[in-house]
Design a protein that fits this description.
By secondary structure, this protein is an alpha/beta fold. Helix content is 31%, strand content 18%. The strands form seven sheets. A six-stranded mixed beta sheet has the order 11-16-15-14-12-13, sandwiched between helices. The protein has a five-stranded parallel beta sheet with strand order 4-3-2-1-10. Strands 18-26-25-20-21 form a five-stranded mixed beta sheet, with no helix packed on it. The structure holds alpha-D-glucopyranose (GLC).
Length: 751
């Protein structure tokens, strides 16, 4: 080996060592993140520290918002003087790069910004809404969808998404049920963890920081009314509402977002029990807590903080770290710390948490790694993303009814009549949390059917307008066109923009004009399939009586219409099962499967002579229209021979249950078998059923498969009102079946 080689190596090593010696330690990539954080903190003024905890909005929610446009220059002056640590709603590789350059090159310490954005179910390629995605019961697909969303978002300059949301909810009147994973704590946790893994990956530059939100129990607003009061027992909080957040924290989420609501009469942003006692102490959360939009300042409106300074103190001392757009930290934090009214140690802890993740993302070593317009162009709307979105959408759509096997329609249709404004309007498909998704890229149901049946005659009649008013003249046209149609596809539901924040609805029945349309179509006597397009469960009681087939398409994202056509045609065999109960009536809400028994339970359909003085309505059944876990397939499955390996197990054992499932149809199909338990008697009443496992399994036509479940006995426990996990001996029931209602049952004893 020539001497010059060694000389070169030596030179490089010496240069590197000299450079490292001359540079500030926080800029030295050879040091640990903690060493770098500590060095940087020691160099920062109190004002600069407070600046890192100030997140400002870069503009409105859509479009690459130029934080440099005239309306925003005030924010850039604040940035230049070290008073901003993060922006939200600044998007696009070029725009974020431009603003990042100011932070890195025009501020005293060159601390890079974090760019945050609501990448809820896709950035540019939009996937099914999370509630729909959860109906697939496909955790791998959910992780993959989050990874694709992260790939597109990170290419567009985004470091951090405010997702996944995992607010458990039994409230279809609440517009944000679309963002969650339904009414079961364990399943919601499984999906939340999968999405955290997908968003964050190994935190290379193809991934983004994830956020656990909204902490906590935001999904239980009284009356389903947005931003309304939440009031529940700690027993309910621990057993129903906290598990999904904990699963996401344990999956390694970098951030947690406060919720708007109160708990125990204290706003979540200032709630030490939630943020410090549970999140940071019990769950050892090492990330940072960001407020929801202006929620620190809203503690004054709640009547919990007396003024801005008091709001700052209550947020910071509860354990919350970053202020999104309430400006109270910007106004008062530095002066309160400088005057000694607030401890600098707590400020350092909050800032240290934020800086840790900026180092972790590599922003100090390569601050422009997320701001490459060429990479952005290649990533957004990539073909493989479209394919993944289409598959995800088809696997999220729930077949609720299929009388006389109207569906699948097959591929030889000559003429289809499509009716309903929602079928044709691109503006009505995407929801409020569409990110940078554009209506013009979205496939409507009409377009999807035209793509699927290029040779067929496909006619469209609007039937009802954007206000859901029936278009009277269309009745004649529909009757006339139906004569030549092989089948009618009618689309009803809700405008996509009615799914999301500040979109609570007191009435979730289909509009009168839509029901009138169905009556007209029904009167033609033609085969009819109804597709419901909505971001929440609707009340379908008046629909289900009158139509033979219902496909609940939810909001399927960019590939919505193609996915609907894949199912209606039979190219995809539906397998999805709802993760929220469908109410029989609005008055029945909240209705959910994992309820307590009460002392006077009503047995729908099995009333006895004394069943008057029981817990029931006089005018409707207790049971929902469609139960949790319900969904049909073009295949059919029979369950048999449920077996519990041992009739009694001890607390270190594993419960082993197996069942045979036969595909009794002539078509291969995916079945989602569900396992529930019931703790028959315990020191606290327990739900009549609790989902504890499931198996999503492809079963060939005519085949029988033995499906086995293993459940560690530890998971048979529950929390008491103080968050202590109790595992109590006694009798248990175990249920296995295709949904939470139609189950086989067995018993066992926990010793
Ligand atoms: C909103 C939402 C929250 C979102 C944030 C930023 O008010 O409650 O989920 O992440 O503000 O858009």
């Amino acid at each position: 080996m020539p001497k010059s080689f060694f000389a070169t190596i030596l030179f490089l090593l010496l240069t590197h060592a000299l450079k490292a010696q001359n540079m500030h330690p926080y800029k030295n990539p050879d040091l640990s993140i903690q060493q770098r954080v500590d060095d940087l903190l020691a160099r920062m003024t109190i004002e600069e520290k407070a600046g890192q905890l100030n997140q400002l909005n870069g503009g409105v929610l859509t479009g690459p918002q130029a934080a440099t446009d005239p309306g925003q220059t005030g924010k850039l002056d604040l940035l230049r003087t070290g008073q901003v640590g993060s922006f939200l709603n600044v998007t696009g590789a070029e725009e974020t790069g431009r603003v990042q350059k100011i932070a890195v090159e025009e501020t005293r310490l060159g601390i890079p910004l974090l760019f945050g954005y609501d990448v809820i179910h896709g950035y540019k390629t939009i996937f099914p809404i999370p509630l729909a995605e959860a109906c697939s019961w496909d955790l791998a697909a959910a992780e993959k969808a989050a990874a694709i969303a992260a790939k597109e978002a990170s290419a567009a300059g985004i470091h951090w998404t405010f997702a996944p949301m995992m607010d458990l909810s039994r409230e279809p009147r609440w517009g944000r049920v679309m963002e969650g994973s339904g009414e079961d704590p364990w399943l919601s946790g499984q999906f939340s963890a999968a999405r955290v893994r997908g968003f964050q990956g190994k935190l290379d530059d193809q991934h983004v920081l994830a956020t656990v939100k909204h902490f906590a129990a935001y999904g239980a607003p009284e009356g389903g009314r947005e931003y309304n009061t939440v009031d529940m027992s700690r027993y309910a909080l621990w057993n129903y509402y906290l598990p999904p957040y904990e699963a996401a924290v344990r999956a390694g989420a970098a951030a947690v977002m406060n919720s708007f609501n109160i708990f125990d009469g204290i706003p979540a942003s200032g709630n030490r029990f939630l943020v410090t006692d549970i999140l940071k102490t019990r769950w050892s959360f090492q990330g940072f807590v960001v407020s929801d939009w202006a929620s620190f300042g809203e503690m004054i409106t709640h009547g919990y903080a007396a003024d801005t300074a008091n709001a700052v103190e209550k947020a910071l001392m509860a354990g919350s770290d970053m202020d999104m757009e309430s400006r109270v930290f910007q106004q008062k934090l530095a002066s309160l710390v400088r005057s000694g009214q607030l401890p600098e140690a707590r400020l350092n802890d909050a800032v240290g948490r934020v800086l840790y993740w900026k180092f972790k993302l590599g922003l100090f070593d390569d601050p422009y790694r997320y701001h490459n317009p060429t990479r952005e162009k290649a990533a957004l709307l990539a073909d493989q993303h479209q394919q993944a979105a289409r598959e995800a959408a088809a696997n999220s759509m729930v077949l609720l009814k299929n009388e006389g096997a109207i569906l699948p329609l097959g591929k030889n249709l000559k003429s289809i009549l499509v009716v309903g404004n929602l079928a044709e309007s691109q503006d009505e498909v995407l929801d409020f949390w569409k990110g940078q998704g554009e209506h013009r890229h979205t496939v409507t149901i009409l377009a999807g059917l035209k793509n699927k049946y290029p040779e067929a005659t496909i006619e469209f009649v609007r039937g009802y307008d954007k206000t859901n008013t029936f278009i009277a003249g269309d009745a004649t046209v529909i009757r006339q066109k139906a004569r030549n149609a092989d089948v009618v596809v009618a689309v009803i539901g809700l405008h996509g923009e009615l799914a999301g924040e500040a979109r609570a609805l007191a009435d979730i029945n289909p509009a009168k004009g839509q029901l009138e349309l169905l009556n007209v179509v029904k009167s033609t006597g033609k085969p009819l399939a109804v597709v419901v397009q909505a971001g929440r469960p609707m009340v379908l009681t008046d629909v289900v009586k009158n139509v033979p087939a219902i496909l609940y398409a939810w909001i399927g994202g960019t590939q919505h219409g193609n996915a609907v056509a894949d199912i209606l045609s039979g190219d995809v065999n539906p397998s999805a099962k709802t993760v929220m109960s469908f109410p029989y009536a609005v008055g029945q809400i909240p209705v959910y499967y994992n309820h307590y028994n009460t002392g006077r339970p009503h047995r729908d359909g099995n009333e006895g002579p004394n069943d008057f003085w029981v817990s029931r309505y006089r005018d409707i059944p207790n049971a929902p229209l469609f139960p949790f876990g319900y969904g049909m397939s073009y295949s059919s499955f029979a369950y048999s021979d449920l077996a519990v390996a041992k009739n009694s197990i001890n607390q270190n054992d594993t419960l082993r249950v197996s069942v045979s499932i036969t595909n009794t149809s002539e078509r291969d199909g995916i079945e989602i078998a569900q396992l529930y338990i019931r703790d028959v008697a315990a020191s606290r009443v327990r739900p009549v059923k609790e989902l504890k496992a499931f198996e999503r399994r492809l079963i060939p036509a005519g085949a029988t498969q033995r499906v086995a479940f293993e459940l560690p006995a530890q998971q048979l426990g529950f929390f008491d009102e103080n968050g202590n996990w109790l595992l109590e001996p006694g009798a248990f029931r175990v249920f296995v079946g295709p949904n939470s209602r139609d189950v086989q049952e067995a018993g066992f004893v926990l010793k």
